Amino acid sequence: MKRILNLAFIGAFIMAQACAGGSSVSLPVTRTFDCDVLVIGGGPSGIAAAVCAARHGAKTILAERNGCLGGTATSGLVAPFMSSTTPDGKTLLIRGFYEELVDSMIVQGGAIHPLEASIGAFSAYRDRGHHGLTTYDYECLKRTSEQFCKDAGVELLYHLLFVKADTRGGRITAAYFATKAGVWKIKARNYIDCTGDGDLAFSAGAPCIIGDGEGEMQPSSLFFVVRNVDWSAMDAHDEACRKAGDFEGQFYMREILAAREKGEFPMWRQKIALFRNLDGTATVNMAQNDGVDGLDPKQVTEAEITGREQVAYVVKFLRKYVKGCSNCELAYSADQLGVRETRRIDGVYTITAEDVNNSVTYPDPVFCCANHMDIHRKGHVEYVARKSNDPYYVPYRALLPKGVSNLLCAGRCISAERPVMAAIRVIPPCFAMGQAAGTAAALSVKAGVDPAELDGGELAAALKADGVYLP
Ligand SMILES: Cc1cc2nc3c(=O)[nH]c(=O)nc-3n(C[C@H](O)[C@H](O)[C@H](O)COP(=O)(O)OP(=O)(O)OC[C@H]3O[C@@H](n4cnc5c(N)ncnc54)[C@H](O)[C@@H]3O)c2cc1C
Fold first, then answer.
1. Nearest Cα residue to atom 31 of ligand 1
2. H/E element holding 436?
3. Span 48-74, mean pLDDT?
4. Whether residue 311 sits in one domain with residue 422
5. Phi (first) and psi of residue 81, to 5 degrees
6. 421, 119 in Cβ contact below 8 A?
7. For position 378, what pLDDT does the model report?
8. Distance between CA atoms of 346 and 343, rounded to whole angstroms?
9. Is position 205 within any domain?
10. Are 199 and 316 within one domain?
11. Mean predicted confidence (pLDDT) in 243-257
12. Most-buried pick from 191, 214, 261, 388 (CB within 10 A)?
């Protein structure tokens, strides 16, 4: 925590200097790096972007503020990887880098293949949208991602908080980081924003949208893990409720209401949500905060503190009411809040809900998926109906911000209407976006053009050659 505060302080100082001195930073830089491709943010999208850029021959640096890779999927304890298949769980749609990473984790005993996942404890017993999940081990993801980076020749730099970009003539010329060793500057030919929050794109002046466009952002959640769960009792309860058609009983909705009345459950979560992990522990997604601005450190801090208070209530509730959880104990809570929504770019192309509905095809597809569109609201999830379950595509132009020609975005900040982002922000599509952005950044270095000028058809062909599924 102390380290984060120190970095935040230096960051604020740099910003103040930058504002005072116009568009460039006036603090002394203690170290400078040069590369072809700089990826900022080492979550799912950043891992894939960096490895794929390096594999395509680019000298690549991956800068991350934490001390591990995985982002929300490790430091945020968000798990499992949401569906990467058709809605029936039968055909794998997100392939390429994602499939390779999962296969490598399976060999180490650190994941279950999405085509082998069925509805049950690993999917929190939920049918809707939960076919084809990938249960995985957090530590295995951290280690395997680092190994992939090493093997590809990515230079990994942890403990670097990006704070400011320099731009000239619609291009980024340098990125500045707050570090324990002063301000570090990284210059690259191409830049990829994988911060989830569009920090780099925003700093470079690219137009961005926040949440619903009027300041409302979806609730955030603090994930945690409990041990000593009796899964046979959990399974038996689920089966009995399914047989009886008792949906409310299946998810302990009546008990939640009763506990709330008694002041034992002062949160607005309506259902239990426990996902079984490979080691028999459970990842729990039940501590939630509404109205948190994920870009405001003060609000995030408050949500993390309240989140941990909620965790204590949830554990007590589970022990008292949930069959199979009477002996469960808190193992650990996430180091950071899970933030669903902040900024996304208003890019060269914005994927619309109508595009998704009609499964429209583009000349520059980078992957396809079939995740459902939903908006999390206080107390419930609003599903956006689709005409069919057909897979839909993500075009390259949605990764390109307006007005900054050597920048790509991947992950939670690409250009998509709000419900579409709600569908494609889950982890498997983020890996796929990262693969597309990293490959594009490297190909454009080779071709001597900016990513904005790269031929989308050529990129699609390269992605197919690398195992991406593009029917
Ligand atoms: C509550 C919640 C529940 C979810 N449930 C699921 C689920 O069950 N399954 C699923 O598949 N998906 C789920 N998701 C979605 C998914 O976890 C994220 O959308 C996804 O991880 C986003 O990937 P990303 O690479 O864009 O960003 P992130 O995973 O957020 O990674 C961003 C990385 O960038 C780093 N970073 C950020 N800013 C800076 C900076 N200024 N300088 C340096 N580094 C920086 C961060 O430390 C982090 O490592 C959930 C999300 C939330 C919030």
1. 43
2. helix 427-447
3. 98
4. no
5. -65, 125
6. no
7. 76
8. 9
9. yes
10. no
11. 97
12. 191
> What letter does residue 414 receive in the DSSP assignment?
S
Tell me: do 296 and 158 sit in the same domain.
no
Q: Please state whether the predicted TM-score (pTM) of the whole model is above 0.90.
A: yes
Q: Which atom of ligand 1 is nearest to the CA of 81?
A: 11
Last residue of one domain, picked from the residues 298, 333, 368 = 333
Both structure tokens of 443: 């190909």
Same domain, 259 and 315: yes
Nearest protein Cα to ligand 1, atom 4: 78
Total domains, the chain: 2
Average pLDDT over every residue of 332-356: 96
Last residue of a domain, one of 333, 361, 388: 333
Residue with tokens 């934490």: 66
**pLDDT number for residue 263:** 95
Residue 77 CA, ligand 1 centroid: distance in Å: 10
Regarding whether 440 and 319 lie in a shared domain, the answer is no
Distance (angstroms) between ligand 1 centre and the Cα of 40 equals: 13
SS3 string, 288-348, reads EECCCCCCCHHHHHHHHHHHHHHHHHHHHHHHHHCCCCCCCEEEEECCCCECCCCEEECEC
What's residue 23's pLDDT?
53
- Whether residues 282 and 431 fall in one domain: no
d(CA 326, CA 71): 32
Kindly report the CA angle at 379 between 132 and 417, in degrees rounded to 5? 60
Are residues 321 and 236 both part of a single domain? yes
311: left (phi over 0), alpha (psi -120 to 50) or beta: alpha
Distance from C-alpha of 369 to C-alpha of 427, rounded to nearest angstrom: 12
Pocket lining for ligand 1, CB < 6 angstroms: 40-46, 63-66, 71-73, 78, 81-82, 160-162, 194-197, 199, 221, 338-340, 411-412, 425-427, 430
The domain of 237 spans 220-333
Task: Name the helix (H) or strand (E) containing 285.
Answer: strand 282-289
